[in-house]
Structures are given as C-alpha cells and as structure tokens.
Amino acid sequence: MRTLKFLLQKEFRQIFRDPAILRIIFIMPMMQLLFLPMAADYEMKNIKLTVVDHDHSSYSQQLVSKITASGYFKLNNYTASYETALEDIEHEKSDLILSIPRRFEKDLVKENESKVFMAVNAINGVKANLGGAYLNMIIQDFNREVRLKWVQFPRMNPEPAIEVTYSNWFNQLMNYKFFMVPGILVVLITMVGSFLATLNIVKEKEIGTIEQINVTPIKKHHFILGKLIPFWILGLAILTLGLVIARLFYGIIPAGYFYTIYVFAAVYLFSILGLGLLISNYTSNQQQAMLISFFMMMVFILLSGLYTSIDSMPGWARMITQLNPVTYFVEVMRMVVLKGSGLQDILPQILTVLAMGLFLNSWAIFSYHKRS
Amino acid sequence: MNNLISGKRTSGKRAPNAARSAWLSGPFIGFVRKEFFHIIRDKRTLFILLVMPIVQIIIFGFALTNEVKNSSIAVLDESKDEATAGLIQQIDASNYFTVKKTFSSVQEIEPEFKKGSIKMVMVFPRNFAEDLKHFNKAQVQLISDASDPNLANTMNAFATSIIMDYQNRINNDLKLPYTIKTEVRMLYNPQLKGAYSFVPGVMSMVLMLICTMMTAITIVKEKELGTMEIMLVSPLQPLKIVVAKAVPYLLLSVVNISTILLLSIYVLDVPIQGSLLLLVAESILFTLTSLSLGLLISTGTDSQQTAMFISLTGMFLPTVMLSGFMFPIENMPLPLQIISNIVPAKWFYFIVKSVMIKGVGIVSIWKETLILAGMTLFFLLLSIRKFKIRLA
C-alpha cells in the first residue's frame, strides 16, 4: 500500500507540473464543448434555391412566395434561364433549382394538369433527399389550395385523406445541442483516458525512466495501478467539468440521476484505461503511440453512433460497434441525460463494459514485462 | 518548394542549374535518405500511415451515412383492420423502417423508449378503416424518440411520405382535377450515395493529419531528444534540414492520394469526372499547405505532446468540423462561418468536390487554388522567419 501511495504521489506531481498536459486536460474540453455543438447541426434550414420561372404568371409567383415563406428555403436567384441556374449549382451558390415551365398556370386551369421540374445538387445525398421532400410537400400544399379555389367540393371531403400527427418525446424543442453535448463529453473523457495514459507510459519508455522503475522492487500490479488511478480520477474530474459546462452554457440538466452517470463513467474509464495500457505495452515511442491511439480512437468514435445512427450501418459495422466501448457510453449518456433512464435500464451496458475492462486490463498486466 | 519538387524529379541526372544542384548535393540527399530510413524502419507507424486512409475510406464510404435505414419501430394498432394492416406492411417493406414490436397499450411505449430499443411508434386509433371509408378522414400518430432530433425529423418525413403514397394508391381511381405534378432530378449523384461527399472529405482529413501532425511531431521529436542540435551544427543550412524532413511525408502523401483515388473509383464507385491531372496537382498543393503548417507548428513548440495537442485541437478538429464535409457550414452561427474561411481544408474540400464530382476545370476553381497557394506561402515565410530567430 505504501509503495502505491508514493507512486501515486509521483504521478500526480508529474501531471500537474507539465503545462502541456494541463492544457490538454482543461483547454481541449472547453474548446470542444463550446464550439463543436454549434458546428454540429444537421438541421435543414436555409436551403439555397434558384427559381427558373418561364411562366411569370400569378400562380408561379404565388408558389415561389409560398416556398420562401416556409422558412426552409432561401431564394438565391430568380432567373429566366436554366443555364444560369445550373451555373449557380456549379458554384455552390444554390442547392436546388425549381423550374416552372411556360403555360404553367394555363395548363393547370385548362388542362387540369401541369408540371414543375426540380433539380437537386445531390453530392450530399441526405440533404438532397430532404430538400426535395420539403419542396414537394410545399408544392402539394399549394396544389391543395388551388384545388380548393376552383372546385366546389361537396359537403364531405371527396378525397380520402390520412392525417398524420407528430409528437416528439424527450426533446420537444428538437434541440440538437441536447443530443450532441452528452456525446461530445464522452469523446473528451475517452481522449483523456486513452491518449494521456498511453503517452504517459510511453514517454517513460522513450526517456528511459521506465528502466529505473523496473529495477526497483515495485510490483507489476502496483506500477499499473499507479498509472491507472491518477487518470481514472482525472477522467472523472473532466466529466464533472463537462457537466458543469453543459449546464452553464447549454442549460442541460440530466433527466436522470447524476450518480447513474458517474457509476457508468467509473466502469467505462476502467476499461478505456486498460486499452491505453495495452497500446503502451505494444509501442515503443510517443509518435507511434499517438498515431495508434489516434487511429483507434478515430475508428471507435466514428463507429460509436455519435454522429450517425448505428441502425443505418451495414452488418459488419454494427458488429464493430458492439465491440466498441465508446458506443455504450454514448448510448448511456443520452439515455440518462435525455430520457432519465436509471441504473436498471443501463445494466446490460454496464456489464458489457465491465467485462471488456476486465479483459483488456488482464491482457495489459499479462503483456507488461519488467524486463526490456 | 518549387526547387524541391523539380529536384525530386530530376534526381539522378546532372542538374544544369547551379541553384538546383545545391539542393541535390550530397548532404541534402543524405538527410532525405536518413528521414526515409526513420519512417521505413518504424514499421508500426508506417503501417498505420498507409492503412489509415484505406480504413477511413471504407468506414466513411460504407458505414457512415446520415441516411435512415432499418430504423426499429413499433406499432400500436387499436383497430387491426385491412387498412392498418396494409399500411404497416408498406412501412415494414420499406428500406427505412423495420417493425420490431407490436404494443397493445400506451403504457408500453415509454419503457421501450428508455431502453433505447425502438426509435418510433406508429399509433392507429380505433376504427381507422371505417373512418377512412365513411368520413374520408383518418388519423395516424407518429411518436418518435426525439433525443436525436435529426433522426426524428427524417423518420417523420419518410413515414409521412410512405403514408401519402399509400393514400395516393387509394385515390388512384378518383381522377382529381387541377393537379401539379413534380419531376425531380438528382444532379451529380443520382443514387444519393454518401461516398460522394465523404471521399473529398476523407482526402482532406488524411492529408492534413499525415502532413501537419507527422511533420510537426518528427521535428519536435528531434528537438526533444537533442538530435536537432547535432543536425544544426552540421554544414547543411537549417532550411534544408527542415525541407529534408518534409520530403518523405510529401511522397507518403502522394501514395495516399493514389490509394484514396483508386479505392474511391474501384471500391466505392465514385468516378472522377474532371481532369485527373488537375486533381492530383491540387492535392499536392494542399499537401504542401499542410506540410508548411506542420513546419510552422514545429518551430513554435518543443515537446511532442504539445505539438500533438496543437495539431489535434488547432488543425485536425477544425478540419473535421469546419471544412463543411461533416456539418453544413451554412447552418453554423456567423462567427464560425467566418472562422471556417481560414481553415485550408475548407478550400481543398471545395476544390476536390468540384473537380472530382462536378467535373469542372481550373476556370471554376482558380480562386480557391490561389487562396491555398497564398496560405502555403504565408505559412512557409512565417516558419522560415521564426526558424531563423531561434537559431540566432
């Protein structure tokens, strides 16, 4: 126990004397938490629209003003030539072209049918799909209004209509930040847990001080515990800092209990630190360690469901997400913060991550040799 | 830097130009070779540097889509008639949704949402088919788990359009007057594949990472270990030492550019519409921008951890966040939109997208190219100045 106490003292001094580490610990979380949620907003608004109006009738103008009034679209250009509109798309000045043909109004009134034409910049497929769908909805709406004006409908609506109503649970305001902030917190804790712990050990290897520790009677598990505990505590400190920022800047108050988050975070840090130890055992210099942990973190974070939904991934990717501890923390964070899930709801996740932690740490202890 | 490229190409031959031969003289080549050995002997690092783009392309191309596919949903059907059965079957048959559960009461909804096993519930009230037939009006309620607002929005939109489709099929017999038909054409990417926007993004990410972070770290590493001192007392000019460090990473990037392009053409089916030559030239320009940025970082730092910290928070995150490939720039608050202009990757992303996918020529992208070239020059001059100050 005494050995461990001295080791811990050494580690804490080392961490707090290095300004670079302190910066990584405190500035990085602040920066990311303050900027990322603002940048990460997929909500469709301000879709840039170019209208090619060959008709110049009162109907075409009504349609255009209905579209711009919807709030989804921003009229970028109103022109009479399709070529100009295509150029707008080429230069990214516009995302969508709505082309209204000549005789649009006449055809509609006299022939009972007319056509409009949409061209969407589909490089970003999702945006294109949603933009097209919104525009279509507005046009259908406009269609209904026109019909109402021209047709004397009988008392009862002759057109069978299914009415769809929506209710959005857990995040009524549909605020994207409530969704992103808990996820980004997970990334921060993961970075601290894996990067810092790995670098710390590998640095001792590179500088050669690990040899000095190896020749002392310090036991293997003492050494590993001495490296684990400080970063475990730091991880929880970062989590606290993050929760404070989330509350002060975004007004996010978890719907569930704080202790649920901390219980899970404690287990999670245990397993992610095990991963860090493992990486440090298999690398010999800082550059290598950084690159490998960066590589793994990138895969883990991208495949954690933080940015994109796991359900949409193909089978092999979903398999990886199940072996990925980050997935479980992102899931748990969102469940507790947004839905108020309790310990019982997240029990499967806790057990999975605990099992991962036991496995990774045993491997790390097993593969750590005092002889070089 | 110009000399550097031409020097690389003419190496082996006798260079006629005196200035050029100074670059090609023994010690410089020796330093370049030394750097190569450094990289090649560290097998793990080399492996990661070469495999990283492949893994990224595959993950981004196949696994990361913002599309909604196979979302698990549940149904609460209180009327259980032929109309609701038909609708549920339509929903289940679509690519977007998979009906996983059937509820019999409203109380069952919340616990399932809390467990996170389903994303949406469709609620059909009693007498759905009857209402539709006799009153021409019926209601469906979509309750979604909006903890992910984007997903909820998209699911709502897709479910609605399936319901509307179903309704139109019923209405098919009735020929309605005054109908506006719409015809949609998807430009550039008719199959709406995610890879079209991710490939250019991955290219800027990988190049940025390898060139900026790795150059910065290798130079700082020599400082940290003290070997920089040894090199600085050698007769070679300090500038050449630094350039020698950059050359291997430039070559490595060229390998990575080719890997990414080959993968995107043959694995992801994203064709190159524009000129390949222009695309490669622009990529090399961006590589140079990142390299000079790495040099600049290395002149200002003296520990590997700090160098990594700066390249990661200062370069990498802005590249991912503000270049526009993951998150649309036009949705960001104005200050961030302004800041995004100083992110080199934003311009490169635009260039790659234009050349590779839209197939435009240099005429449409000369402005962006100039901006990148200007940035490169600026970073280089600044780092040369700072480098000299340090040596004085």
Short note summarizing the structure:
By secondary structure, chain A is an alpha/beta fold.
Tell me what you see in this structure.
The complex is a heterodimer of chains A (about 375) and B (about 400). Chain A is of the alpha/beta class and about 375 residues long. Chain A has two domains: about 220 residues; about 100 residues, abc type-2 transporter like fold (3-Layer(aba) Sandwich), CATH 3.40.1710.10. Helices cover about 65% and strands about 10% of the residues of chain A. Chain A has 14 helices and five strands. Chain A has a four-stranded mixed beta sheet with strand order 2-1-3-4, with helices on both faces. The relative contact order of chain A is 0.11. Chain B has about 400 residues and is of the alpha/beta class. Chain B folds into two domains: about 260 residues; about 100 residues, abc type-2 transporter like fold. Helix content of chain B is about 65%, strand content about 10%. Chain B is built from 16 helices and five strands. A four-stranded mixed beta sheet of chain B has the order 2-1-3-4. In chain B, helix 3 crosses helix 11 and helix 15 packs antiparallel against helix 16. The N terminus of chain B is likely disordered. At the A-B interface, helix 2, strand 4, helix 6, strand 5 and helix 7 of A face helix 4, helix 6, strand 4, helix 8 and strand 5 of B. Strand 5 of chain A pairs parallel with strand 4 of chain B.
